[in-house]
Amino acid sequence: MSHMMTASDSMYSVREAPWHMGMGTNVLLLDSSPETREQRIAAAGHDWLVMETGIYNDEYQMIEDWHMLQRSDDKSVLNITATSYVVVQNVVAHELFEALIEGARLDDGTGGTVRGGKVCYLSARVDEPRQVNGDDSPIYPYIGVLWSHDKSTGVQCFRTSVRIVCYNTIRIAELSSKNAGRNYTFKHTSNVLERIDEAKLVISGARDETLQYIALANELGLIPVSTIQRQRFIDRLIPLPPATYVSDRVVDNVFKARMAIENLFHGPTIPDNHKDTGFGLLQAGIEYLDHLRGYQSSDTYLGRTLLREEPLKRRLVPIIRELAR
């Protein structure tokens, strides 16, 4: 895993230390979120401007239609781009962030830079914990804003369950939110703040999606499941192939997979109140399909857990409802 933080990068993290803290990265650990824009900009390491500087050839003649983007503090080069490229200063992204979180109760969050300031981010955990009846673990959403000065990404805002602390988590939050339809990218950066209402619609739509999941979970949580029904669910999820194609190795693999799911009901990941409910079956099915099922590579694992919709997951709820009849 890579944090992509150079010596000129820094970040703040409220209450929770990022995984790379103590590994030479510049991390400011705070007890509470910054109260003002100025404090947030300084804590995130966004307190510099993007300067547009002319480019000269070997004969000291200015090259038309091109310029260099530099940080105002250390003069490091962020990008070389056409003069038609619209620079979004860090303070504008902070104004966007403030508009998105207006009226929301915020808990912890992060903000910082990676790749020498070429990519910048802000995130805040919205203090709107949701809980499924019978499960005391809260579900928190995050609101994030992402922008770059090297054209690697446009100005984006999104709602995610990923806490951003490094380059990898930036990419996971970005890709997973796009896949789930929770991402709004400003195609024309010259009027970012004028299109804030469009962005808010995407954010509020994601909130509705969370509420729909809670409603579904509570519905399934009211469905009692017997030991026989649980076994039937496992058999449906991991079926044996037709007898003519079954080898001893295949039978052994199916048995091991079924036992892996059965063991989930005796472990800590499924709440005690839901070990014998439809919601418990849903949790077991998702955990198996995401984490216990074999995978060919880390890309395959990341894709099925976060970046794309899995057809087998869509079958879980219909199977549970059918068994409950």
Would you tell me the structural class of the helices and strands?
Answer: alpha+beta
Number of helices: 9
* Biggest sheet architecture: 7 strands, mixed
What string gives the helices and strands in order? EEHEEEHEEEEHEHHHHHH
The helicity comes to 25-40%
Sequence stretches where pLDDT stays below 50 over 5 or more residues? 301-308
Radius of gyration: 24 Å
Q: Could you tell me the strand content as a percent range? A: 15-25%
The first-to-last residue Cα distance is 46 Å
Biggest β-sheet: strands ordered side by side in the sheet? 2-1-6-7-8-9-10
Mean pLDDT, all residues: 84
Described by the principal axes of the CA atoms, the overall outline is elongated
- Counting DSSP E segments of at least 2 residues, the number of strands comes to 10
Main traits of this protein?
single chain; 325 residues; alpha+beta; three-stranded antiparallel beta sheet; 10 strands; 38% helix; elongated
